[in-house]
User: What shape does this take?
Amino acid sequence: MPETSKRIPKDYRSDLKPVWCAGCGNFGTLTAMTQALAELEIDPDRMIMTSGIGCASRFPYFMKGYALHGVHGRALPVAIGMKAARPELTVIVVGGDGDGFSIGGGHVAHTARKNVDITYIVANNSIYGLTKGQTSPTSSIGQLTATSPFGATDPPINPVMQLLSADASFVARGYTGQPKELRELILRAIKHPGFAIVEALSPCPTFNKAMSFQWLNERVIPIPATHDPRNRLAAFALAMEEGKFYTGVFYENPRPTYHEYKKVLEERAGRFEDDTAGIRELFSDFA
Ligand code: SF4
Assistant: This one.
């Protein structure tokens, strides 16, 4: 397709039909993602997607373009490798809350600290769906699951707060019941130079009936227009509010990316090599 051609969401879909349950929130993320990519007119040949394991991690199968469906919790290290090898490509990671914040939990903060220029969409349904309904790291206290039939006891991880702590340079939350708004957030995340994460609240009607679309509709509210996304403390305050889920951009703080630092370090290393060559030449006089 010529560079100037207008792309449509269908251009980013593979021939495979999603195997998600009827009413799964992941459909909303798929719609939002393909719309965002079409609006950005990203060439499917110039993007690559990776994921871990889980219902949301099946995402790359349903997308056109290069992709790797990896191992549980390791999507971010794979994505870093992709970006290191081919920095000119748009690298996107999609996964669930268990994959990202339990099995792969150690990778999130360090990818954020390094500020590698990748986009990470976390579909948060507060349950392990693929393995039939176990407690996940974002399950709430008291939640009834296959592994907590009398109620979960661990306080849930708040993905937004964890990412703010790691100084991720772009932190947003959307809701799959609002795909238009989610599309805008994904679009901004892809455009953001650096590590950008969007938590997508994504109901699992099969295994987490408590967190339904109706339940979320009553609790999801947009971040006030007066919020300054450069104010990390204010972002923390919004993320900590109990009983409601703010959606929008909590924090946006463009700072040098991993590749920008790498370039500077390579230049320094080059100078160091030159210096070494000069010293070697000097010493050769005494040989
Ligand atoms: Fe979606 Fe839940 Fe079904 Fe998985 S089990 S496809 S998360 S509804």
Observations:
- Residues 20-21, 24, 26, 55, 125, 129-130, 204-207 surround iron/sulfur cluster (CB under 6 Å).
- The chain has nine helices and eight strands.
- The beta strands are 47-51, 66-69, 90-96, 119-124, 170-175, 196-201, 220-222, 245-252.
- Residues 9-254 form a domain with the Rossmann fold fold (CATH 3.40.50.970).
